């Protein structure tokens, strides 16, 4: 595996020097300063690449080139945005970058309700509390039709949650959901959020799939020509929320995707923390099945809670993800590729807020020390497994 680290650019508190010291050799980043939908110029890409290389690191993966909402809905300026996306891919390829992560989640990127969930040892984790989310959806957002998705017991629990919450807690819950987590391109007020959701009223799963297929058909030939691999990130959490369709959540979705637009440029990001929230996603099985279409991995674990749909982020080698099984399946896939292509880039994805980072205003999920711990643990696991497998 190639050990990489997500870096949010020159303003990130975690510096490129820190990243090297944490044990990564590759950087995962994006030109976050360029507004969603605009072309990334060769000059801008090249300058960022040279900066990274001047620290003896490599720009391993672009995460993400964001997909404009108009493309997902096929409304407004979608044709122009698709063309800009294609041009950005051509420019990235020209600069020698070969892997691009993206996602196709409507309106929101990843979603959590609690960004400072205290664990028994005093560290903090990110959490998705389904009851809090229901409270938001049913009684704060008051989305039409949402009540249909909930049982009477769930509604009562959501109501009780809200009755017990202070104004500050309610405001924080709303902000956590709609203000945009690190890496999200969008951030909304409650009013804007209602409008954005309404724009999807006529878009169901089938339509969203069709829109994704048409988008990929338009960009994949250029990606393929430039030797680029696209790696779609799964929905997080991996299920429909807020009445929005979600189409990259389970194994069948990936089967559909790879089948709908066959191309060596059409691949996936195996994010174990996202897919792993569902007990019916067998990660080892997915790695074996999608093997040569996996171009990037996010390794972390989650712990499902008692209330269905609720989970929090666990330490990298704990929780529900069988990390030993996952890493050994990835290493077996790499063995199969022997000689062809490069090591599969992995990043520790999120980490807990621990030690000195607890006193800092760290980006949710992206504090330095928690990710350093996660990377170190996964690297140790990898080294041990490799030695058992008799490979280097
Ligand atoms: C969260 C991330 C997501 C992911 C995007 C990929 O930490 O895994 O923000 O980067 O969804 O496009
Ligand atoms: Mn991820």
UniProtKB/TrEMBL annotation:
Keywords: Iron, Lyase, Manganese. Pathway: Carbohydrate metabolism; pentose and glucuronate interconversion. Its cofactor is Fe(2+); Mn(2+). GO terms for molecular function: mannonate dehydratase activity. Its EC number is 4.2.1.8. It catalyses: D-mannonate = 2-dehydro-3-deoxy-D-gluconate + H2O. Pfam families: UxuA. It is an enzyme of class 4 (lyase). InterPro entries: Man_deHydtase (IPR004628), Xyl_isomerase-like_sf (IPR036237). Catalyzes the dehydration of D-mannonate. PANTHER family: MANNONATE DEHYDRATASE. HAMAP family: UxuA. Belongs to the mannonate dehydratase family. This is Mannonate dehydratase. The lineage of its organism: Bacteria, Pseudomonadati, Pseudomonadota, Gammaproteobacteria, Oceanospirillales.
């Amino acid at each position: 595996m190639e050990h990489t680290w997500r870096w949010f650019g020159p303003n990130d508190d975690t510096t490129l020097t820190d990243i090297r010291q944490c044990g990564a050799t590759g950087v995962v980043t994006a030109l976050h300063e360029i507004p969603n939908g605009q072309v990334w110029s060769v000059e801008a890409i090249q300058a960022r690449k040279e900066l990274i290389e001047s620290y003896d690191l490599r720009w391993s993966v672009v995460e993400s080139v964001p997909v404009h909402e108009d493309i997902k809905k096929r409304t407004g300026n979608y044709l122009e945005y698709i063309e800009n996306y294609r041009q950005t891919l051509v420019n990235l390829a020209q600069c020698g970058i070969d892997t691009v992560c993206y996602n196709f989640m409507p309106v929101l990127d990843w979603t959590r309700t609690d960004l400072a969930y205290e664990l028994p040892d005093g560290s903090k984790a990110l959490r998705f509390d389904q009851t809090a989310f229901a409270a938001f959806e049913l009684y704060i957002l008051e989305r039409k039709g949402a009540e249909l998705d909930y049982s009477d017991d769930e509604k009562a629990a959501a109501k009780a949650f809200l009755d017990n919450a202070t104004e500050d807690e309610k405001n924080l819950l709303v902000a956590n959901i709609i203000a945009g987590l690190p890496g999200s391109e969008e951030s909304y007020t409650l009013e804007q959020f209602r409008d954005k959701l309404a724009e999807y009223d006529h878009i169901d799963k089938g339509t969203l799939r069709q829109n994704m297929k048409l988008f990929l058909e338009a960009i994949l030939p250029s990606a393929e020509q430039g030797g680029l691999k696209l790696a779609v990130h799964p929905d997080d959490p991996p299920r429909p929320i807020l009445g929005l369709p979600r189409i990259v959540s389970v194994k069948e979705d990936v089967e559909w995707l790879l089948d709908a637009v066959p191309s060596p440029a059409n691949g996936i990001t195996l994010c174990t923390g996202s897919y792993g929230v569902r007990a019916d996603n067998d990660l080892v099985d997915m790695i074996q099945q999608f093997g040569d279409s996996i171009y990037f991995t996010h390794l972390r674990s989650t712990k499902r809670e008692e209330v269905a749909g609720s989970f929090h982020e666990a330490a990298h080698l704990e929780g529900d993800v069988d990390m030993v099984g996952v890493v050994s399946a990835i290493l077996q896939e790499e063995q199969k590729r022997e000689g062809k292509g490069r090591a599969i880039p992995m990043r520790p994805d999120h980490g807990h807020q621990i030690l000195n980072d607890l006193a800092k205003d760290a980006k949710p999920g992206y504090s330095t020390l928690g990710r350093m711990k996660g990377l170190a643990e996964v690297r140790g696991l990898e080294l041990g497994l490799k030695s058992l497998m008799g490979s280097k």
